[in-house]
Amino acid sequence: MRRLSILFTALWVLLLGFALAQQTAAGTNISNQASASYIDSAGQARTTTSNQVITVVQQVYSFTITPDGIPTAPGQTRSALPGAQVYFTYTVTNTGNGTDTINLATVQDTSDNFDFSGVTLYLDANCNGRVDAGESTVSAVTLTQTGASASACIVVAATIPASATSGQYGNLNLTGTSAGDNTKTDTNNWARGTATTAAALDLTKAASPSNAVAPGATLTYTLSGQNRGGSAASAITNVGGTGLSGILIQDVIPNGLTVTTSGSNPSGTAGAGSVQFVYYNGTTWSTTLPATITGNGTVALGMVITGSGAFFPQNASYTFSFQATVPAGAAQGTTYSNTATLLYNNGSNQTVTSNTTTNTVGASYGIAVGPNGNPTATAGADSQTIASAISGQTVIFTNTLRNTGNTSDSFTLAVSGAPSGWVCQLTQTDGTPISGPIGPVASATNYNFQVRCAVPAAYTGGPVNLTVSGTSVSDTSKTDPTTDTITTVTSGYAVDLAARGNGGDGNPANDNPPAQSVNPGSSANFSIEVVNTGSNADTYNLTSSVPAGWSTVFYPDATCSGVLASPTPAPLTSTGLMNPGAANKKCFIAQVQVPAGAAPVTSTTNVTFTSTSTTLGSVSDSVTTGVSVNLLQGFAFTPNRSGTVTTPGTIVYTHNLSNTGNAGVTVSIPAFTSAYGWTYQFSTDGGTTWTSSVSGLAIAAGGSSPLQVRVIVPGGEPIGRQEAATFTATATYSGGSTATSGVTDTTTVVGGDLRLTKSAVSYQGNAETTVRSASAAVANPGDRIVYTVVAQNIGTGNLTNVRISDPLPAYTSFVSVSASATGFASGTVLYSTDNGTTWSATAPGTLSAGQSIMVGVDTNGDNKIDASDIMAPASQITLIFKVVVQ
């Protein structure tokens, strides 16, 4: 009997643990977004993100009624006198992922001896197996997904007919049907009531508290009963091997609970006989109780009501009570199920099994957020500091969150305190943006994340104190902050413009180029150089201040020789991207073009050249010089222009036609034929009309006319293709003489981009057979979601070091990942789960919460992804990422 009781208890704990396994709550959003990093065709590091896929978890209905039983093997049996009432005890548990109402009903057997009368269902609020004063009748119970309201105790009270004879029995079944999904039922819960005129002791068990308990709490178990039969109950000799004669009530201590035997623990009373407490060590019984008993599923505490013969009369009652302590570190969801047994004699030895009490350890939520690797840092140490940062750069802090609760939980993260203009983002450690809650994070587990703040170019000063906090999704009162501090921010932008050979020397006295003298209609070439004296790479626009009607064209001086190269290179208006330091200086020829007919100028400080940061307009540097000019007549077509355009794309250049002669002219410009099939058009009316050539344009003496050139570049042109189109304007004076002037427009094709798209499909169950949602908009717990991430080089230039990253979404478990590539001449797909530190050609078999999968194509065979790996135009990487909803 002892072994059978112990086995039953252990099995019940196991089954209940399965039943209480939590599913992701209905209405939960599962969000997922992929990211990619790469180096574009201009050598610049880039990042991009895919669209976001959001899946809403749907409600799944599921419940259990226990104990189970069939008519021939009922789950519980009660005995009482004919005409007396018996109690059948049940537990209804919601095993779905949302609130549900379970409709309850009873069914009577047709193959037994009798039907019960007065069958009534009660909500057993304290789960003690009896109907107490104030407990209400029910026909349905509404149960939540988690917590104390996830299950309910039901007592079915039924009366044995007074006409029943001793030994006859009736069978009764409690059935349940989900109100949310009436296909979900539980109908195998048969119980049996037996009529008897012999002694009939019953046994009920109560636990206080009756359901949810906290770690470290004390449980009080109370076993009680009464002789409801027609004669006195007799003692069992050497009952349970205790050496005592009497009635034995025994209770196997649930695994993990601790009983301290002192004072009034345990305690008990009996309406007849004496009370003796006994202890079972898994092998034998003893009347000596240990000071401490720790439950292991085998050891038991008991009470013997001692006596001899038929000593326990009709209606006599008893109680047996003891206290047990829940472990302080008990995990949420841990269940302590307990069923007691009673041994007595009514002519033969009888065993009575009590109802089962079940206590579930409730969730205890907690969070700690702190510096990297130290989430539980105490006051005074709960911060981390970067002494100095540079404007225009990104400051990165790694912080650590720890789940200090006793159950898995998800958390929302927030960062505040950033100055106006700062852009702070929360990311995974691989840089993937965090969207929505993180987790679930297991109890006592750390989770690293990053705060990335882009410091505005114009910001200087400090200190900057960022408050980084995490909040439990399950209990928003549980939150914890930490501080990330930047002591000071210095400017990352500065520039030095100087005469050739003097840039970056820190001496502004030698920056100005020497003055020059030219004739009207000609040019003065000044050799200058630009040095990025800041900390960040930057591009500088080159501008000039010259007398009205004059213009300046800047040309690259690749060799820093100070001489305009032949043939004339394409003009420019900016330096292009420059890295910091004098070793990275760039030289230019500033060609000041003096219009024909310009008045004599003798000033030596009438020309200023300026380099201005394109990132921070307040950062600039200027040099001044002079140009002496003599008056000459002529005709000018100015200035040269340069620009960039995508493919396909259009760019418009603006020029000026100037007549500095003493008579009116008519101007003509022939059509230009492109070597690449590009289209060139002209407009003399501000872009209203466009023609392929210009003729008969009248310009008065001393007058001028604007001219626009439109370049239309078709699709498919390679990056870097450049065409310098020279247009010659012929001015015919009224006397018949002519003058010509020309400009060169240099157009360069730019492009190269990585497009990242994401799609998903959800399937019913963890198999890809029946589609739940073609867009993965909805899913049920246990459903599989298949994400497809496609990275395409949609530009016309090569990309390098392309890495696609996708995090494991919250509320899901990893199934598998695979990737393929098309459009590559050769290469091997590699995988990384540590942010690109190590790579493998074998896809990972596991991925834990917070981890990301990263893929790339190794095109040079060195078993890693870096700047040597090339992704050509039109090539594609496809990532298939499969998860199952928890």
From TrEMBL:
Protein's UniProt name: DUF11 domain-containing protein
Superkingdom of this protein's organism: Bacteria
Q: Per the database record, which ranges form the DUF11 domain?
A: 773-855
Q: Which organism is it from?
A: Meiothermus granaticius NBRC 107808
Q: Which PROSITE patterns does the entry link to?
A: EF_HAND_1
Going by the UniProt record, its keywords in alphabetical order are:
Signal
Does Signal show up as a keyword for this record? yes
| InterPro entries the record matches | Chlamydia_OmcB, DUF11_rpt, EF_Hand_1_Ca_BS, OmcB-like_DUF11
Keyword Transcription assigned:
no
Which residue ranges traverse the bilayer? none
Q: Where is this region: Disordered?
A: 499-522
Signal peptide positions (record): 1-21
